[in-house]
């Protein structure tokens, strides 16, 4: 069984904490050894924009874009995803994304440069309000700003997907009103556990209808009110997303290296085969399981390479 993961924060750790794919250190979760052991064939690497960082937003992105390139130079096992990528080989495909629309600093020309540099998707917000949109964690009924709508339209024109993770409901409605590729890289279903960062069924259903994916997130505060989460909690989320969004919607969006606490027995990509067994316990089997574990996200990601 192959696996594809729609979100990790390794690049931030590489820049700020000395993370190294070949020589893991500290709290690092994603490593080359674990990716290989988990049979991961596609990994999205997000450039997370830290609004409290001493460096400017664009400068932060450039640091992580440089780290992404160095990561490839130092690890020939990695290859940037192309439409003809064959997962049966020995290589691991990667995709560069941005978590936090602050990176573009409100300029469409910077957005176009991102696309030329290989960025395939971007969230509009993280957990704080910015010049583009309002985040899920803030109780605000306003959606995208005028500038945010302009940026989303430009993303649609240049073929960059809008990642609605972290966006509030009104903002998601605004995104879905535009002609743009849309997905949720690392989000869950509110109907299973009522977290403000999770999505309502209506939005999950529409993402699935439009060919996008919803990658189930492993962060315990989006899974349970207990001190820690289990693979069963993740599998229940997956089963609901599958039921609502359809067989082509469900994916994985771990958020590895982006949280301080992992679900029991799931602290790295090497444990993903065990998660697949938890999915099977929830009735997700056969070709539907294969699609959820890697096929759906691979299809969507390849569509961004065209």
What does this structure look like?
- The protein has helices at residues 10-17, 32-37, 57-74, 108-116, 146-158, 169-176, 201-209, 231-245, 272-281, 286-303; strands spanning 3-5, 40-48, 78-80, 92-99, 119-123, 161-163, 182-183, 214-216, 250-252.
- The protein has 306 residues and is an alpha/beta fold.
- The chain has a single domain (3-303), classed as TIM Barrel (Alpha-Beta Barrel).
- The strands form two sheets. Strands 1, 2, 3, 4, 5, 6 and 7 form a seven-stranded parallel sheet that branches. Strands 8-9 form a two-stranded parallel ribbon.
- Helix 8 links the parallel strand 8 (214-216) and strand 9 (250-252).
- The longest helix has 18 residues, at 57-74.
- The radius of gyration is 17 Å and the shape is globular.
- The two termini are 26 Å apart.
Largest sheet composition: 7 strands, parallel
Helix-residue proportion: 25-40%
| SS strand fraction | 5-15%
How many E strands? 9
Model regions low in confidence, pLDDT < 50 over at least 5 residues: none
Supply Rg.
Answer: 17 Å
CATH class, named Alpha Beta
CATH superfamily: Metal-dependent hydrolases
Count the DSSP helices: 10
Give the domain tally: 1
Q: How far apart are the first and last residues' alpha carbons, in Å?
A: 26 Å
CATH architecture grouping: Alpha-Beta Barrel
Give the overall average pLDDT.
97
Q: Examine the coordinates and then state which fold CATH places here, giving the name of the CATH topology.
A: TIM Barrel
């Amino acid at each position: 069984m192959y696996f594809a993961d729609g979100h990790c924060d390794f690049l931030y750790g590489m820049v700020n904490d000395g993370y190294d794919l070949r020589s893991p250190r500290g709290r690092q979760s994603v490593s080359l050894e674990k990716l290989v052991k988990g049979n991961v064939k596609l990994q999205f690497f997000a450039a997370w924009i830290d609004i409290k960082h001493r460096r400017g937003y664009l400068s932060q992105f450039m640091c992580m874009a440089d780290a992404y390139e160095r990561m490839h130079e130092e690890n020939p096992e990695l290859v940037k995803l192309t439409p003809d990528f064959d997962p049966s080989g020995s290589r691991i495909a990667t995709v560069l994304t941005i978590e936090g629309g602050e990176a573009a600093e409100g300029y469409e020309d910077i957005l176009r440069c991102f696309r030329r540099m290989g960025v395939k998707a971007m969230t509009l917000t993280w957990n704080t309000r910015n010049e583009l949109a309002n985040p899920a964690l803030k109780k605000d009924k306003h959606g995208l700003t005028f500038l945010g709508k302009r940026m989303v339209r430009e993303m649609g024109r240049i073929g960059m997907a809008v990642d609605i993770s972290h966006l509030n409901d009104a903002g998601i409605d605004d995104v879905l009103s535009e002609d743009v590729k849309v997905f949720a890289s690392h989000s869950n279903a509110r109907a299973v556990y009522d977290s403000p960062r999770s999505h309502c069924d209506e939005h999950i259903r529409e993402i699935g209808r439009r060919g996008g994916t919803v990658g189930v997130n492993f962060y315990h505060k989006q899974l349970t009110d207990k001190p820690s989460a289990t693979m069963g909690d993740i599998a229940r989320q997956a089963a609901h997303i599958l039921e609502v969004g359809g067989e082509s919607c469900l994916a994985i969006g771990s958020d590895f290296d982006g949280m301080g606490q992992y679900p029991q027995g799931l602290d790295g990509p090497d444990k993903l085969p065990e998660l697949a067994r938890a999915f099977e316990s929830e009735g997700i089997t056969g070709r539907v399981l294969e699609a959820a574990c890697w096929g759906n996200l691979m299809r969507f990601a390849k569509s961004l390479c065209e």
